[in-house]
Structures are given as structure tokens and as C-alpha cells.
From TrEMBL:
Species whose genome carries this gene: Stackebrandtia nassauensis (strain DSM 44728 / CIP 108903 / NRRL B-16338 / NBRC 102104 / LLR-40K-21)
MF (Gene Ontology): acetyltransferase activity
Protein name per UniProt: N-acetyltransferase
One Pfam family of this chain: Acetyltransf_2
Swiss-Prot/TrEMBL keywords: Transferase
Amino acid sequence: MNITPILDRLEQPFPTRADLKTLRGLYRAWRTHVPYENFDLQLGRDTPLDSEFLVDKFGIRRRGGTCFQMNGTLALLLRGVGFDVDIVESGVQREKRGEDVWGNHIALLVHVDGKRWLADVGIGDSFLEPLPLTEGTHRQGTLDYRLERLSDGVWRARHHAGGSVSSWDFRTVPRELSEFAENARHSTPVMHKVLVAQHHRDGHELALRSRVLTDTGPAGKTRRVLEDLADFTEALKGLAISVDDLGPDNVRLLWNKTAEQYQAWLDIEKRIGV
């Protein structure tokens, strides 16, 4: 599989070594170049997980996606440069919602020099570098993440205090990406109910939920409601969304859908305490 289009998008040369420096560099480049977004689900499109489709979507068309495609494509990239990568089953908010959430997410465990590293670009505002799979608090900049071993083969990742989710659990048994094809099509209810996009740029975490755009940076958090189609289009560009790939008709369709979703998102915010 030709991974050059993905490396080109990340503005990275083909690595000469599959070492920790390379892993950190590719992971950070992904977080700062590729947005998390659920637009295909919003448009009623299929969300395949086969390699050819993923290279085309993320490398050629320069789109983003939800966790299954995001982490699936990152695994494809890392394996392509020589890393040993395990795709593992995960459950976002299992601590609060129980066993039924297993399989609503996947994560990656990357083997480097006899150690395992948690890589997860499928959480929209995830850490900027992989975390070593060791118990305890891991600080990146001003943010603290925590890993806890719950039992043999089951771990919990705790997000920083202002994260989009409080925690997600994951198993360490390797799985095949194809096993999650049906999960990717259906995803979680909120992914179908509300348009979602997230991107890290210049030290700022940008998030779009329906028509609500937030910018969290060193000086704090700002929030505004998008006013019209032109405002929406510019916001998508700021989130590194390829509006050219979407096309004007689909951008307009997505904008119109957010009119119905706006109150739904406000209700969700109130319920979860955002």
C-alpha cells in the first residue's frame, strides 16, 4: 500500500527508522494536520475501512473522519513505515455508561524498543504525543493525562480536566480493523445527531458542534454561534476541513442540517455539563 499521499499531507518525509522519535513526529503531525469530523455520517455516506479507501480519503482528498477511520489510517501509516501496531477495542465513557459501550471506539498500541505506547487520534482533542503504557499521570505541556490498569488486559485513559470526554477504556488484545466495519457505520447516537469537527492548530483546540464554534487556547476558551453559510464555510476551512472535496452543495446541506441540530446540541451540553 502506497502511504506517500498521507506522508505528503502530514508534510513528513518517508522515515528511515521506526523509532520513538519517528512515532512522536508522525503522531504530532497527524494531530496538527488532520481534523476529526463526522461529515460522511451526517451526509448519509458509507464509512469503509479498507486500506485503498482510507489512503484516498485521508491522503488524496485530505479529509478527516471518526475514530475508526482516523486510528485505522494512522495504523496503516505506522505499519507502512515499519512499526508493529495493535488495533485494540475501546469503550468511551465506560466508567459512566457501563459495558454496552465496548466497541464504540478503537485505539492503537505501538511497540517500540520493547515498550508499548498508546496512540489515539480518534478522540478529537486527544494528547499531542503518544503516551507510554505505564500507570500514572503523564503531563504534556500544561495538561495531565492518566493511565490506569483496571485488570489484566484492560486499561483506562483519563482525559485532562477540560477534555471532551472524561475517560475511555481499552483492551490490549489485538484485533483486526475489519472487525469494526459495522461499528463504524453506526457509531454513537450523537455522531448522527450532531455535526462534529475538531482540530488542533497553533496551540489552540478548535471544536465545532452543530453551529457552536469554540476555541480553547493558552488565554482561555471562547465560544460563538456561527451566523450564516459563509461564516460556516470559513469555520470549516479554519478546522482544516476540505470544503473543495465536500463541494458547495454538501457544505450547504450540512449548514442546513445544523439548524435542526442546534437546539439538540444545547440540550446535550446541558445534560452532560459542557
